[in-house]
């Protein structure tokens, strides 16, 4: 299939400058029109966006972005990752200084304001405990749990209490090397972690109130950098330093198996993101985006062709629906994240080593 | 860093003259001037394009100081050499720099690899993607070493460590100096 035959193309919606150093990560506020980014420059930048209708009356709206605020954070080192709470009111920052910052808008009016993040963002809490760099922070779907991971090989699970009080529920020391990423299942309190030890681990909260690892997914030949659950929660995608994306299926409640190994990248894959997309076929599992050191963005539509029978693996088909080489020119792309809000299923943002944050839209032909 | 010396008595190698600083017609390892042999010169031109690129990279890293023996360069200790720099045939912007630790248990190897990476990061145009590896068979923890030298996140975090950065800057402060002044 030649490039021209892709069913869709990727168009630039906005190019957001401002970071003085590489941009590591982006996060879309799930409730409000705010896009946040974080960087090695130790700041978090927030952008407000609103939709405009196309003058041609195609009904296609193209969001317009403007910078609303910059949080200096006060972290002593790189801010590596950020995560919004499901309510959209709180932002967590994960830093190489080993701490996690919890931020909210002090002014009640600002917090209720459904438009931009224009007010002052204050540090409501500082979660200490990791011994070395914090790599990823993530809220569970219900918003009452926060997970973090670090080069210290551990995964921490925190319970969110009122007044920004966080209680550590577990320190999981299952990996033998740095933990690069943690991701929560979209509906259940199941946690996944990806590591420099080439494996993925899955964790549950035991009825006796202890978090434990119930599965280890091996198969990648090198560091696993990024994880993304499918929107329906039945599949997990992982991106690795071995240049592949693997798809794992939940064949039984506590059993996940690899059903697909996707090639197409020429260097380490730093980020994967799985969104609902604008499904073009029945049985579609949504749109999976991947990117990394080769600067290429790939958007794939995954579908089930043959469902697995009782505990067996399904057969999937994958189609590259759009590809964009050199998305950040010669710079590595560190992060790709689909917008989670209704009406924006074809929009995603990227962060690159050039310090830029870019917003893109997939146009299906 | 520990006070243990990994290699107290290193073998010191003679440095090569920079190939670009030689008078025209003079070749290394040759006693005679090549006069009037144009065919040979032409073929050398095509090789020279590649050789210059390899040499350019080598020029950048040859004078990095060894962390354990600060008055010696990586070139003098035969840790780096021009032939150990290779380019991806399909993409000239991707290169691999191989280095040879002086002893198989060298604990300074990570640091040396990091100094090479930082030097190239700061001096090459952004389009270059560099892989750093130890010469196969030259180190007891070859895989682990290669893995961390090529993990972008670990490298970035290491460079935010003030103590490490200070020593790194000291080892990089000698770059740009040509070991043999007579070569100029």
Automatic annotation (TrEMBL), chain A:
PROSITE patterns: WD_REPEATS_1, WD_REPEATS_2, WD_REPEATS_REGION. CDD domains: WD40. Keywords: Repeat, WD repeat. WD repeats lie at residues 16-57, 72-103, 127-160, 172-203, 217-249, 333-365. Pfam families: WD40. HAMAP family: ciao1. Essential component of the cytosolic iron-sulfur (Fe/S) protein assembly machinery. Required for the maturation of extramitochondrial Fe/S proteins. Belongs to the WD repeat CIA1 family. This is Probable cytosolic iron-sulfur protein assembly protein 1. It comes from Rhodofomes roseus. The gene is CIA1.
UniProtKB/TrEMBL annotation, chain B:
InterPro entries: FSCA_dom_sf, MIP18. It comes from the Eukaryota. Gene3D superfamilies: 6.10.250.1280, Fe-S cluster assembly (FSCA). Belongs to the MIP18 family. This is MIP18 family-like domain-containing protein.
């Amino acid at each position: 299939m030649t490039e021209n035959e892709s069913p869709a193309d990727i168009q630039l919606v906005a190019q957001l400058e401002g970071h003085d150093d590489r941009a590591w990560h982006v996060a879309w506020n799930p409730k409000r029109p705010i896009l946040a980014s974080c960087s090695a420059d130790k700041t978090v930048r927030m952008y407000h966006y609103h939709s405009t209708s196309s003058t041609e009356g195609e009904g296609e709206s193209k969001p317009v972005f403007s910078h609303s605020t910059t949080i200096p954070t006060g972290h002593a080192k790189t801010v590596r990752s950020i995560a919004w709470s499901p309510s959209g009111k709180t932002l967590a920052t994960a830093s190489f200084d080993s701490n996690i910052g919890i931020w909210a808008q002090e002014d009640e009016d600002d917090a209720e304001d459904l438009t931009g993040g224009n007010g002052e963002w204050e540090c409501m809490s500082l979660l200490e405990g990791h011994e070395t760099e914090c790599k990823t922070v993530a809220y569970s779907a219900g918003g009452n749990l926060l997970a973090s991971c670090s080069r210290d090989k551990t995964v921490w699970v925190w319970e969110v209490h009122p007044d920004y009080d966080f209680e550590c529920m577990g320190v999981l020391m299952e990996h033998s090397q740095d933990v690069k990423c943690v991701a929560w299942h979209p509906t259940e309190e199941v946690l996944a972690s990806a590591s420099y030890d080439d494996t993925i681990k899955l964790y549950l909260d035991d009825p006796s109130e202890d978090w434990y690892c119930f599965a280890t997914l091996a198969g990648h030949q090198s560091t696993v950098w990024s994880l993304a659950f499918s929107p329906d929660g039945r599949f997990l995608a992982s991106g690795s330093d071995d240049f592949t994306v693997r798809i794992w299926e939940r064949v039984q409640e506590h059993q996940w198996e690899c059903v697909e190994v996707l090639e197409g990248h020429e260097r380490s894959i730093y980020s994967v993101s799985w969104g609902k997309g604008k499904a073009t076929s029945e049985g579609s599992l949504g749109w999976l985006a991947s990117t990394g050191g080769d600067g290429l963005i790939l958007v794939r539509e995954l579908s089930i062709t043959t469902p697995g029978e009782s505990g067996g693996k399904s057969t999937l088909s994958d189609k590259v629906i759009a590809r964009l080489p050199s998305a950040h020119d010669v710079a590595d792309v560190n992060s790709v994240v689909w917008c989670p809000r209704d009406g924006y299923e074809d929009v995603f943002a990227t962060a690159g080593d050039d310090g830029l944050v870019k917003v893109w839209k997939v146009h299906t032909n | 860093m520990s006070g243990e010396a990994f290699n107290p008595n290193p073998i010191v190698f003679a440095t090569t003259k920079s190939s670009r600083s030689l008078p025209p017609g003079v070749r290394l390892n040759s006693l005679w001037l090549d006069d009037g042999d144009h065919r040979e010169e032409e073929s050398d031109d095509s090789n020279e394009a590649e050789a210059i690129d390899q040499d350019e990279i080598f020029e950048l890293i040859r004078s990095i100081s060894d962390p354990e023996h600060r008055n010696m360069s990586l070139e003098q200790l035969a840790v780096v050499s021009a032939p150990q720099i290779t380019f991806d045939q399909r993409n000239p912007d991707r290169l691999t720099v191989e280095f040879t630790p002086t002893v198989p248990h060298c604990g300074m190897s990570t640091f040396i690899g990091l100094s090479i990476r930082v030097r190239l990061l700061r001096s090459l145009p952004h389009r270059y993607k560099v892989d750093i590896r130890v010469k196969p068979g030259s180190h007891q923890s070859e895989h682990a070493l290669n893995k961390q030298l090529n993990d972008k996140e670990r490298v970035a975090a290491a460079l935010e460590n003030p103590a490490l950065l200070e020593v790194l800057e000291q080892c990089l402060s000698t770059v740009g100096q040509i070991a043999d002044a007579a070569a100029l």
